Amino acid sequence: MDWLAKYHALIVCDEKVVRIPYGNEVLIIQGDNCDGRITSKKAEDKSEEKRLEDVPIVREFLEVFQEDLPGLPPTRQVEFQIDLVPGIAPVARAPYRLAPVEMPELSTQLQD
C-alpha cells in the first residue's frame, strides 16, 4: 500500500484497473485474473492556465500590476547583507516604547 500511496495510484475495483500518474501521462494497468499488464498510456494535460486577473485583490488594483515585467532589477552599487552569527538569538525587545493605553491596541493589531 505504501507504494500505491507514494505514486498516487487510483484503484478502480469494478473495472479491475489501476491508474498511476507518470509525469504528464497516466499508466493504466488492467488486471486479468492474477496476471496484470500495462494496457495503455494516456497523456493528460493537468496544467491550468493561471492568470493574474483571476486573483480578486489583483482585479481590484489592476493598474498597479504590470502586464509584462521589464526583467530583473538592476545591479546596485552597494550590496546589502546581514551577517548572522550561528547560535545567537535575535534581540527580543520592543523597538520603541508605547504608552500603556496604546499597548492593548497594538496587541489586537498584531493578533489580526
Automatic annotation (TrEMBL):
Q: What's a single GO MF annotation on this record? A: RNA-directed DNA polymerase activity
UniProt entry keywords in alphabetical sequence: Nucleotidyltransferase, RNA-directed DNA polymerase, Transferase
* Keyword Transmembrane annotated: no
Q: Matching InterPro entries, A to Z? A: DNA/RNA_pol_sf, RTL1-rel
The UniProt record lists the keyword Cell inner membrane? no
Q: What protein does this entry describe? A: Putative reverse transcriptase domain-containing protein
Q: Which organism is it from?
A: Tanacetum cinerariifolium (Dalmatian daisy)
The taxonomy runs: Eukaryota, Viridiplantae, Streptophyta, Embryophyta, Tracheophyta
